[in-house]
């Protein structure tokens, strides 16, 4: 099954994006009357038929709408230091979306290897991963922010910071069905000053196991643990 992305234009009708219109009409060679499935990224799963097979703005007549399709009983926000190699960060975004994540914030730490991001490209990665994994909620990608500002302004109740020397594993501290924030640092790890600041703002130190993980791998492990504990 192909899942497309579109927006409602009038009651009962929607337009696919230009990219998805081209894929639907030019690549898959779908015609008027063909059944299609699409989402708006807000939890709605639509079934409809093509009413105007325009390869730039394919119009869909909506037949059925399923709201809150695949909605989880928890939410996960991962704040992560951007990797020097942008491909590794894109890989994290893709896989985390497939596993299940709601929000991502790139945090700039004292030891960050990358301090500038073009979020337009990263949002495309998220959108593609959402469609590929047949999900209907598009993860929110925030603009990069300095770590100290992020820590001091965040109001999430259940907050965790991943550290190699933490005594407790994330799986032992996490409470199922909660809204969680997991903080993951750069390859060079957080500085002692940054760790102290997280303690002042009630972040719980947790481990992801005995292995030393790359930043993007740590993000995937954290997302997997949260997903498994909420199955």
Describe the protein's architecture and organization.
There is one protein chain. The protein has 231 residues and is an alpha/beta fold. The protein folds into two domains: 64 residues, Hypothetical PUA domain-like, domain 1 (Ribosomal Protein L25, Chain P), CATH 2.40.240; 155 residues, SPOUT methyltransferase, trefoil knot domain (Alpha/beta knot), CATH 3.40.1280.10. 32% of the residues lie in helices and 27% in strands. The strands form two sheets. Strands 6, 7, 8, 9, 10, 11 and 12 form a seven-stranded parallel beta sheet that branches. Strands 1-2-5-4-3 form a five-stranded mixed barrel. Strand 7, helix 3 and strand 8 form a beta-alpha-beta unit. The longest helix is centred in the last third of the chain and has 15 residues. The chain is elongated and about 60 Å long. The two termini are 24 Å apart. The mean pLDDT is 94.
For this entry, give a set of tags:
alpha/beta; 231 residues; seven-stranded parallel β-sheet; elongated; Alpha/beta knot; Ribosomal Protein L25, Chain P
């Amino acid at each position: 099954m192909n899942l497309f992305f579109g927006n409602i234009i009038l009651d009962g009708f929607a337009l696919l994006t230009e990219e998805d219109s081209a894929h639907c009409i030019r690549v898959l060679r779908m015609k008027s009357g063909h059944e299609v499935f699409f989402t708006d990224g807000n939890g709605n799963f639509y079934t409809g038929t093509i009413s105007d097979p325009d390869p730039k703005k394919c119009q869909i007549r909506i037949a059925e709408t399923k709201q809150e399709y695949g909605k989880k009983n928890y939410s996960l926000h991962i704040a992560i230091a951007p990797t020097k190699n942008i491909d590794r960060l894109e890989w994290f975004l893709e896989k985390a979306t497939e596993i299940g994540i709601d929000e991502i914030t790139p945090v700039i730490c004292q030891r960050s290897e990358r301090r500038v991001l073009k979020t337009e490209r990263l949002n495309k990665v998220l959108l593609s991963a959402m469609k590929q994994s047949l999900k209907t909620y598009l993860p929110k990608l925030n603009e990069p922010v300095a770590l100290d500002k992020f820590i001091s302004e965040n109001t999430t109740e259940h907050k965790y910071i991943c550290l190699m020397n933490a005594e407790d594993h994330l799986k032992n501290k996490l409470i199922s069905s909660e809204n969680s924030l997991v903080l993951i640092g750069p390859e060079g790890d957080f500085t002692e000053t940054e760790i102290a600041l997280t303690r002042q703002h009630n972040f719980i130190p947790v481990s992801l196991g005995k292995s030393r993980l790359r930043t993007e791998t740590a993000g995937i492990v954290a997302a997997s643990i949260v997903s498994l504990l909420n199955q």
